Amino acid sequence: MRLQDVNTLQELISQMVIAISTGGNFLLNIGPDNNGRVLPIFEERLRDIGAFVNAHADAIFSTKPWIYQNDANSTIWYTSSLRNSNGTDPYRIYNPQDQDNTIIYAFVLDWPEDNLVNLSHVISNSKTNVILFGAGHQNISLNFTQPFTLNGGIQVDISNGYCFTSYTARYISNHDNFEY
């Protein structure tokens, strides 16, 4: 086996995020060598994916696809959860979009060079709050604007000197109410 035959951490995280955002499951096939040992490269990938999942558990576990799986021509993928799921079908395909009850998570798989994240499907209201979750469980409240070009969507600027070194994929959570 050659190193270039093994998916990078970024490739694996992207595959996992897309699977979660589309309502699927992510199965990572790691097999032992002929002596029954797990190769160090696979061990490293498993450890790193585990760290990513632990850091972003709120956006992964107990979530469903949002009504928009991703932004068109983008590397932003969405999941959502409900503050209160009483009375909802546990086998539903996606969460009902009740603006008082829905939390949106946006996974940004390719951080833009201009540090402007365009979330064209997230329509804000007066209660919208955007929080960036980064490495080391950092929760950073961010300001956003509503450029005319996004037709009501929001643009988040993270150029205020924040530096994230752990993973390419980040997620931005719209923790308060929104309109859709």
TrEMBL record:
Keyword set, alphabetical order: Glycosidase, Hydrolase, Signal
Domain (Alpha-L-fucosidase C-terminal): residue spans on this chain: 93-157
An example Gene Ontology molecular-function term: alpha-L-fucosidase activity
This enzyme's EC code(s): 3.2.1.51
Entry-linked Gene3D superfamilies: Glycosidases (3.20.20.80)
InterPro entries according to UniProt: FUC_metazoa-typ, Fucosidase_C, GH, Glyco_hydro_29, Glyco_hydro_29_N
Highest taxon, organism lineage: Eukaryota
Coiled-coil residues: none
SUPFAM superfamilies xref list: (Trans)glycosidases
This protein's GO CC annotations: lysosome
GO BP annotations, alphabetical order: fucose metabolic process; glycoside catabolic process
Domain Glycoside hydrolase family 29 N-terminal: 4-56
Pfam family, one: Fucosidase_C
Annotated family: Belongs to the glycosyl hydrolase 29 family.
Task performed by this protein: Alpha-L-fucosidase is responsible for hydrolyzing the alpha-1,6-linked fucose joined to the reducing-end N-acetylglucosamine of the carbohydrate moieties of glycoproteins.
Protein name per UniProt: alpha-L-fucosidase
Organism: Acrobeloides nanus
Taxon lineage: Eukaryota, Metazoa, Ecdysozoa, Nematoda, Chromadorea
